[in-house]
Amino acid sequence: MINLHTGVQVRRRLIPVSTSTRRDAVENRAGILTAATAAIGHDPRASIDSIARRAGLSRRALYGHFDDRNAIVREVIAAGAERFNAIAAGVDDADARVALARLASELWREAAHVQAAAALALDDAHLAETSAALAPLRRRIDQIVRRGQEAGELRTDLPAPTLSRLLEETGRTVVARVDAESSTARAIAVCAVLGIAGLSWTEARALLAEHPDLEAS
């Protein structure tokens, strides 16, 4: 670098960043996203202050990792969508009823992310962004529904797009109304989805009995 006043070339001293410093920064960023996910799950309009408190950081420290609240929300949406879409892509049961049950069960494992996604989906400010991020999941649900209707495994009194939308709304309602810490929460979520898909509660329970892994913790 040239000193503009003396014209003499000088060498800038670089201060090395230690491995532990980088690791702390990564961990703090992950902690902020975890805190934001939990906070938004309870309140889609959770403030920067409430997120910072959950993360155990000051507001100033939080801004050292994210430019603003929208930047945090975008990462929460992206992280949740990545998890959901990966789960949906991995569901390949031949029976559409089992496929829907497995999808609901596996998504419930991501309860905190599901709650945050459900809350953000109801927040008009991020509705379009959330919808776009979850497009692969929605396509997978639609594929399962269409296949199930063609095979006579799911109800056919509703068009596939309508049934798919109802399944999504049912899942969101269950997330909002059921205590995620309850030991029966997963079974309730699965049975609610299967009920909308056309199964009676006894048929839903029988399916769970045939596939105990769907309720396993």
UniProtKB/TrEMBL annotation:
Superkingdom: Bacteria
Keywords: DNA-binding, Transcription, Transcription regulation
DNA-binding region location: 47-66
Residues of the HTH tetR-type domain: 26-84
A Pfam family annotated for this UniProt entry: TetR_N
InterPro entries named among the record's database cross-references: Homeodomain-like_sf, HTH-type_TetR-like_transc_reg, HTH_TetR, Tet_transcr_reg_TetR-rel_C_sf
A molecular function GO annotation: DNA-binding transcription factor activity
The protein's name: Transcriptional regulator, TetR family
